[in-house]
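Case study 2.
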Amino acid sequence: MLLPVGGRKGSTPVWPLTAASAAEKKAWSQLWSTPQAVAWERLEWTRTVARYCRVMIVAEMRGAPAAVLAQATVLEDRLGLTPKSMRMLMWDIARDEVAERRDEQTTSARGRIKAVG
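Prediction:
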């Protein structure tokens, strides 16, 4: 599946679990703007993403139990949030060829500029 480099557009899905904390709301919004969110939406993985969001917030707290850290890692892999899991899911992020060409032109122009003494 080819995912858009610019991430998912549109409104954030409704939180499907019990009341979300402020940190969960912020993370939820950020997660749904990623390229992977396009696939999650197609696959209807809203609840799984919500569980990951909830576990991730706890896992990032100081002194988080090892079991929570392990669960966060498992969910990251299932949701395609690591390069290895993206390969396993056969997901790829589309290249932004226009931006790449612009970067190449900027880089090559800088390479031609020389300081004059």
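The beta strands are 2-3, 92-93.
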